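Protocol step 4 of 6.
Sequence for MALR1 protein (Mionectes macconnelli) entered exactly as in the expression construct, tag removed. Do not edit the line below.
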Amino acid sequence: CFNSGFSCDKCDFETNLCKALYEFNLQPGWIRRNGQSGIGPPYSDHNGNESAYFLSLSPEMQSSSATLRTNVFLPTDEEHVCQIRFHYWVSGTLMVGLQKHSEDTVTNIWQVSRELQSQWKANTITINSTEKFEV
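Step 5 output, structure tokens:
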């Protein structure tokens, strides 16, 4: 999330997880790997770099689901906008959910299911919330 261009945390998984993702939130099923890992596609990151790292479901989790959770973001307003941009390669269904701190449930705000062409795509989600939230 970033506020109107004031700050933008960029994460490429080269050294660790994003600051927005807790290490302990890397739940079982997620692995940090690159295209040379021998696991299968994708064989490079979204820039075509075979040695660059990204997060992936581990092979034994392909028919299951796994969750990534961000840290807590502050409320948004006209001056403080939250935009999350990410690259994705889908072999199942990818969903982005929003959990506000006053709510117990996660609201689905975006999703995509496997498309015919296997390739990296990019998406940007703008989030508005009057209270603290997690994605």
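Step 6, annotate. The chain has no helices and seven strands.
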